[in-house]
Amino acid sequence: MRRFPSRPLPDFKCLHRALSRDVTLDNELTFFQLGRDALVYGLEALGIEPGATILIPAYMCNSTIKPLMNLGYNIIFFDVKVDLNCDLNIIESLISSSNVKAILSVHYFGFPCDLGALVKLCRQYDVRVIEDCSHSYLTQISGRSVGYFGDMAIYSMRKTVAIPDGGALKLNVGIPLNPQFIEKKMQLFKEVLYLASRVLETIICFIGFPNLYSAKIDWVKKIMRNIGSSENGNVNLTVRATPIKGSFQLKAYLYDSDYTSYVVERRRHNYKLLVGEAEKLGFKVLFPQLPDGCVPQFFILIDETHQLAPWLREQCIGAVVWPGPELPQEISSFIDDFPITNYLNDNLVMLPIHQSVSDEQCRSTIALLQRFVGSK
Fold first, then answer.
1. Which bin fits 143, alpha (ψ -120 to 50), beta or left (φ > 0)?
2. Is residue 63 a contact partner of residue 326, using CB atoms and an 8 Å limit?
3. Could you read off the pLDDT of 322-367 as tens digits, one per residue?
4. Is 198 found in the same domain as 315?
């Protein structure tokens, strides 16, 4: 049975089409290497300087939080609801009791959050709303793209398409940006190296060896990520964000409307293919219904046995728990204060449904889920 990677593969037809076109990027967006770089840059563009208080959902990865803390922002966490929205009563209480300047509202895993009431509340208190669209580039709300509702939005397109960069910032408050771009040295070499690594990943998945998602490989990946880390294991993320000129691959995918339409259709198709079969097997699905306009990043199951994700990874399926060990210690150490976030972190399992996953591979995933149920 052919395996497939947890993230989308390069589309060489799309890249080839771009070679014969004068591809350009959306001039409403300023691009960065990573989404967290866009967040830091955007806060300063809004005049929210280090020292200001920001409300951030507790269900968040440490790599997003750490740069803000290192720069001196005062972070107040709030627990999310099971549907991944925020409790407006809690938000209003926190705003009223603290000098809050901004709130981060996250469209988790491609599923749009309920922004209308939150934006209205924050307008009353002059609190900036930052849309985190890192998981949700291409998702829409009532026919309008996410990122257009708050004061500012950040993106991480590399979670949707196969690119080495893809952080982006959008300001909706009429503040002009005149960024000084940096030229990334050896950009062409890095792009070719990225493509080569993804081709190698494809070959490994095809032959099934080694298992890219085994515990041993995970350990090696962890060691590599920690190279250059500080003594406590946290990467030093205090460098100021600097805009960049997006890679050729970024331009190629974002410019190609046929490809982005395919991404939308394929991800929604795969999600619907899995949801009915998973429920027949007795699995709990976090979102049984796929909202209109939603472009899901993953297919998400609730697994209170805590065995499904490691089992699937041993079967060469890139199942993910998020943020997993990257949940900030300020959250994981205080379960009573953030019970829902810790529950979600412990029990959600994300299965790949990206545009490179075929119907046959979806059926293979269903067959593995059947095997898992049969083994219990």
1. left
2. yes
3. 999 999 999 999 999 999 999 999 999 999 999 999 999 999 999 9
4. yes
